[in-house]
Structures are given as structure tokens and as C-alpha cells.
Amino acid sequence: MADQNEYDVVVLGAGPVGQTVADRSRAAGLTVALVERELVGGECSYWACIPSKAMLRPVAALGDAQRVDGARQAVTGQLDPAGVFGRRDHYTTDWNDSTQAAWVAGIGADLIRGHGRLEGPRRVAVETPDNQIVVLDARQAVVLCTGSRALLPDIPGIAEARPWTNRSATDSHTVPRRLAVVGGGAVGVEMATAWRSLGADVTLISRTPSLLPMMEPFVGPMVEKGLKDAGIDVRNGVSVSEMRRPDDDDPVTVRMDDGSTVTADEVLVAIGRQPLTDDIGLETVGLLPGSWLDVDDSCTVREIDGDWLYAIGDVNRRALLTHEGKYQARVVGNVISARAAERPLDTNAWGPHQATADRYAVPQVIFTGPEVGSVGLTAEQAERSGRRIRVVDVDMARVPGALLWADGYEGQARMVVDLDGEYLLGVTFVGPGIAELLHSATVAVAARVPIERLWHAVPSFPTISEVWLRLLEAYRG
Ligand SMILES: Cc1cc2nc3c(=O)[nH]c(=O)nc-3n(C[C@H](O)[C@H](O)[C@H](O)COP(=O)(O)OP(=O)(O)OC[C@H]3O[C@@H](n4cnc5c(N)ncnc54)[C@H](O)[C@@H]3O)c2cc1C
Ligand SMILES: NC(=O)c1ccc[n+]([C@@H]2O[C@H](COP(=O)([O-])OP(=O)(O)OC[C@H]3O[C@@H](n4cnc5c(N)ncnc54)[C@H](O)[C@@H]3O)[C@@H](O)[C@H]2O)c1
């Protein structure tokens, strides 16, 4: 397919986002080279979403059974680590990417294995595993989808402590007796949940006064209660100031800024991400190596002449989630094919060529016990944006379907209403079994369904979805 290494589109990074843009470009009839230096499928498939959720699903399944009288009596044991690891290894295909590589061949794209770097405008040089250099020229577009890696704090002793990042937290085959987790964000709370359920004594150290601080304020305390009920020691409002592991076989001592310490066999650092842009040749096109890539709503990199460079997925920092990166990839597929055919772009928000949902309707599920699902703006974000809003809160224990789902159900729901437009800006649910409920809220927020019309979206009785009726009733008063 390739004409002497000349392609319409060259994609750097074959994570979920790179794969999707390759697929969309091929569907538009363009030739594509997809460059990957590690495993086709990226961080998401092997060290993030897939293994973490494969490990967390058994925790939820056991918890669901334990919350239902009659079933509770039938499940008296703990999770079986060998079974959980086996399940995870199955879904990561034992860190073998041949199936995903075959998928790339199946869509008619060329997979080039190696480390890619920009070499000036519209050109990528790939250093292959056998130290050859393959030069790829892009007639239409280069798409940067190189993702992110774990951010590590610059504190004394961190190198000797050999901290776990998301990598060991998702591919380890042994359960540490004691695990300290630094960071109260998504990775911290989920991995604390998973490793505690496998038998580790877990201490979760969070710098902020509450866990998951980007979410509605009631989320953190409810997740914290769940973690504590599971036996996790949660320490809020403290920062790690140093780590010490004097010898390789010694445990690690984590010291906090309030003078307290935690001793553990492993320490997981989960304090956010940094972009994988330090060694991709950004300097050859006038951009700063190591920076997040600034894009407009068509995901075209700003300050580059000629509209040929795009950045999508984690690397543009708009929303560090697989589904949002893939959404951007679908938009960019449309943009590249329109530009290739010299068709004008539709620059309206929510149009085919503008990433919009990744700002206003981002859904996220955190797979803790209880689960958290949120989409759109929190009340605070909506207020800060200058809108006139009303906040509606409902105790989910009032919903018969929730009580039938789990005895003594504990959960909370909130919707944030735009009073001028009478549609929803954001929705948050916390409780068992809410993960699959979230998409109903995503549809309402993204489509701006008028409240009047939501009354006609009748949830089935008796399901947890009837929380929608309680929310609408509370809004109407
Ligand atoms: C523990 C954890 C759990 C998560 N769980 C979820 C979840 O449940 N749901 C969710 O939506 N998101 C989740 N995320 C976030 C999600 O993993 C990322 O948003 C997603 O992986 C981003 O996809 P990407 O394709 O942009 O990058 P990546 O998945 O990081 O893929 C980038 C690819 O580019 C390759 N690459 C990098 N540099 C080069 C180069 N120079 N040359 C060639 N190839 C290169 C890399 O090897 C990699 O394969 C989680 C993250 C973590 C850390
Ligand atoms: N289920 C999911 O959707 C899911 C699961 C895991 C990760 N992710 C995504 O992956 C990304 C990375 O997750 P993450 O948890 O690493 O980042 P995060 O940004 O979600 O949370 C990091 C936390 O660490 C804290 N922190 C920052 N610097 C610190 C420091 N020096 N010391 C102590 N604490 C510090 C922050 O206040 C924040 O609460 C996120 O964007 C997240 O959305 C998603």
C-alpha cells in the first residue's frame, strides 16, 4: 500500500486513540502508517483501564453478593488472588499484542514498530528495534497520540524506594503484605481498593482534605467510608516529604510533612500523569519537548503552519480518559478526510469537526465500592462559568430498585440544572451498581434534553434508574 514510505497519514502511538484515528483515516480511504514502540493497544490495554478493571470487577461482584441477604450466606470466603490475576492476565492477553497487531493489518494500515520522532514538518523518523531508521513522509497529516506516563514527585529517596507506578500496580503477580498508596485521585482509590481486596494492608495517603477532589464534594467522603469499611487506612491532608528504602530487601518508609510515617513493602505513586512528548522531535517543528500539546477544537496543534499536525488522547490534556481520546480520534478522522478532500470544516460546536463533548459532557466511572459516576459540570464548575443553576440532591436509598439491588443501599445522586435553558449541565451518582446507569445521564447532558421532556423518559420499575424520577420530582418541588 505504501509508496516508498509515503503515506497520507502517519500516526505516532498505537494506544486506543492512535488505533481509532488509524481506523477512521483508513475508512476515509487514506493510506496510514501506525508507529508503536512498545505494545499495540497502549497503556490502556496493558497497564491501565483493562487490567485495573479486570482486577476490580471481582471486588464488585463479591461486594454485590455480600449486600444481598440469601446470597451473602453463599459467599463466605475472600477473593482468590490466583483467580483474579488469571482473569487479568487473560484480558491483557499476557501482555502479548499479536491480536491487536493483526487488527491493524485487518484495517489495511501498516504497523511500523519502533520509536518515532518528528523530523521537521510532515516527516517522522522511526528507530526500529534492530536500530534501523525508517523515514515516513505524511502527505496529509501526522497525528501525535503518544499518551502519558506516571508523574513522580521530586522528593528525597524516591529513586531508592523503587516506587510502583500504574505499571506494577496492574501487572504484579504477587500481593505485597503492606502497600502505601500516594495520591487520592482515580488511580489511588481504585488501586487501593483492588490490592486491599487481594489481601494487602493498604494505607492511602492523600494531599487534599478529601479524596477525588475534582468531583462533587459528597463523593470523596462516601468513597473514603467505603475504603475504610474495607480496612484501608486513609490519611487525608498530608504530603509525602521523603521515602527511605536503605537496602533492596528492606521495606520502604514513607515520611509525611506532619512528621508521621508509614512503613510498607511497596509504595504506589499515583499523583497524576506527564505527557510522553520529551523525545518525539517536537523541537524540529518549533514546539517545546516534554510539554502538553495545545490544540484547538479540531485537535489541530496550535502554532504550526499548514494544518498538518494533530494531537489527541492524553497528550493534549483535554480529558485523560480512553473514551474521550477515542472521541477526539473520530473527530480528527473527519477533519483529516475533509481537509484531504478540500472540503470546508464545520466549525460549530457539536459539529462533526469540533471536539466539544470532551469539555462539556465528559463521563467517568470510578470503580470503587461504592462506584462513582459523573458527567458534565459539577455545581462549583457550573457556578464558576457564570451560569444560573439549581442543584438537586437525592438520597438513593429512597429508590425501591436500589433497595432491591442491595440491602441497606447507600447512595447519593445530584443533578445540576441550567435555569435559563432548563437542561442538565452535570449529573453525579455514588452507590453500588450505578456504573451502567451513567450513560443515561451522559445522553441527557450531551443532548441537552429539556427537563420537560425528561419527564417522558420513564425508567423501568423497579430499577436503580428510578432515581431519575426522584431527581425530577425534587426539582419540581
Ligand atoms: C491505572 C489507570 C487506570 C485507568 N483506567 C481508565 C478507565 O477505566 N477508563 C478510562 O477511560 N481511562 C482510564 N485511564 C486513562 C487511560 O489509560 C488513558 O486516558 C488512555 O490510555 C490514553 O490513551 P492514549 O492512546 O492517548 O495513550 P496510551 O494508551 O498511553 O498509548 C500511547 C501509545 O503510544 C506509544 N508511544 C509513545 N511514544 C512513542 C513514540 N515516540 N513512538 C512510538 N510509539 C510511542 C506508547 O508505547 C503507547 O503504546 C486509566 C489510567 C491509568 C493509569
Ligand atoms: N476509572 C477511570 O476512569 C480512571 C481510573 C484511573 C485513572 N484514570 C485517569 O488517569 C489519570 C491519572 O490518574 P491519577 O489518579 O494518577 O491522577 P489524578 O489527577 O486523578 O489524581 C492525582 C491526585 O494526586 C494528588 N497529588 C498531586 N500531586 C501530589 C503530590 N505531589 N503529592 C501527593 N498528592 C498529589 C492530586 O491532588 C490528585 O488528587 C486521570 O486523569 C484519571 O482520570 C481514570
From TrEMBL:
Q: Name one GO molecular function term.
A: dihydrolipoyl dehydrogenase (NADH) activity
Highest taxon in the source lineage = Bacteria
* One protein family per Pfam: Pyr_redox_2
Keyword line: FAD, Flavoprotein, NAD, Oxidoreductase
Question: Known SUPFAM superfamilies for this protein?
Answer: FAD/NAD(P)-binding domain, FAD/NAD-linked reductases, dimerisation (C-terminal) domain
What cofactor(s) does the depicted protein rely on? Answer: FAD
Q: What is its EC number?
A: 1.8.1.4
Question: In this protein, which residues make up the domain named FAD/NAD(P)-binding?
Answer: 7-324
**Which ranges carry the Pyridine nucleotide-disulphide oxidoreductase dimerisation domain?**
362-468
State whether keyword 4Fe-4S applies: no
Record has Chloroplast as a keyword: no
Q: Which family does it belong to?
A: Belongs to the class-I pyridine nucleotide-disulfide oxidoreductase family.
State the protein's name.
Dihydrolipoamide dehydrogenase
Species: Micromonospora ureilytica
Q: What is the lineage of its organism?
A: Bacteria, Bacillati, Actinomycetota, Actinomycetes, Micromonosporales
